[in-house]
């Protein structure tokens, strides 16, 4: 019987995958201990979140796909599985140990060790054409708002007009502030929550918008805000009127009850007085009393 080469059976492939997963978890925890603010998570993103991010990248688009903060590479893996050619991928990672791992794990992919918050310097001259997408797993919320806006501005400089900036967050709101007037014009779209990630996360996709589009978006936002304010004012007025009517109704009802009780007691006094008068009259009318 032919002997199977060791380490190539189904079971051993599963064991290898599990071992790799545990090794990545250990690398991540180590990185987190060394630099918790930059690492931003204690374990790599799960495959559902990684796929949700990769889905925003149009495989048919032209140009490089830049990944910021790839860590141990779960999103890189999802991008490759989606069909992005390795030669199009440029990974920007700060941690040198992660960079070495990424180079070993993803042959043909360019790995750049450097600061993603300084893209002009880190990628200066490296991209031969505008990028189709920039996919970021950076822990943005650990940075001030101004840094995040600057990152988006720099990213848009590198993107093609139809390019997208993709970012995941564990937070409830957009990690890039959506006050259009204060920064670069953009449109934002959020995915459904990815519940099968620990912790659950959401993917945001930002697109550069031309100034008129951004202005229109701003006007629309203001309109929505003013409708919301108006609606809540009307709701408050309805609530106040209802409370007032209820109070008045209760007062009127109480007054009526008191009235009825008073009338009843007056009636019973009168009845009692009449009865007493009748008894007196009967006593007087008795023959013996005359
Ligand atoms: C939350 S982890 C995400 C890792 C991986 N993409 C994932 O989803 O599991 C953030 C990654 O961003 C990297 N990072 C943080 N700050 C960075 C910076 N300024 N420039 C480049 N990479 C950075 C960290 O080293 C880490 O690998």
What report would you give on this structure?
By secondary structure, this protein is α/β, with parallel strands linked by helices. It has 2 domains: 10-209, Rossmann fold, CATH 3.40.50; 212-290. It has 8 helices and 7 strands. It has a 7-stranded mixed sheet. Strand 2, helix 5 (96-105) and strand 3 form a beta-alpha-beta unit. The chain is elongated, with a radius of gyration of 37 Å. The chain starts with 9 loop residues before the first helix and ends in a 6-residue tail after the last helix. The model has no long low-confidence stretch (mean pLDDT 86). S-adenosylmethionine is lined by residues 38-41, 44-45, 69-71, 74-75, 92-95, 98, 115-117, 137-139.
Instruction: Supply the CATH superfamily name of the largest domain.
Output: Vaccinia Virus protein VP39
- Assigned CATH class of the largest domain: Alpha Beta
Q: Which outline best applies?
A: elongated
Largest sheet: 7 strands, mixed
How many domains make up the 3D coordinates? 2
Strand order of the largest sheet: 3-2-1-4-5-7-6
The CATH architecture of the largest domain would be: 3-Layer(aba) Sandwich
Round the mean pLDDT to the nearest integer and report it.
86
Individual helix count: 8
